[in-house]
Amino acid sequence: RRCLAPVGEVARVAPTLYFCTNFRPLLSLADIRERFAQAPALGDLREAMSGSQGVVHLKGCPGSALSFAIAAVFGALEAPMLLLLEDKEEAAYLLNDLEALVGRDQALFFPGSYRRPYEIESTDNANVLLRAEVLSRIDSRKKAALIVSYPDALFEKVVTRKQLRKNTLGLRVGDSLSLDFLNETLFEYHF
Question: Could you say which DSSP state residue 39 is in?
Fold first, then answer.
């Protein structure tokens, strides 16, 4: 009937429910990350990930333990990682955790481009854009990233690096283009 770490007032809201204002959590996010980083099992995981193959299968991580482990290893290795989960929903949950732990610019989602699997007629343009951004980031090799995906998304064909460069229109702020040129280029790209 009392707060875990009371700092402020405790007010009685209902006969058996108490509401605590202005409380301080027992562990901060930084504390949890630090504890995960110091865990002996994480040292083994870092060793396995830095090995020649770098393929590791993790099972049985409760709650967000998987996210904390991945964030700790990623922070230590600074190497790109592909995280393959069972389905789109699990991938989205992991992505959400990783965005909070390592930042939105470090955790990328590689979704399937179709609304329904194998129905080419109904593509989701937002997902096509996400896929292109991830491929562009991989191609640039500027910064390591965590790429979160699922099997259905990986089975789709992806353009080659040569095709991607050939069919990319680079624009900068201040560039002047004619409407005819832009329209013709987008038509050539089947946009």
Answer: -
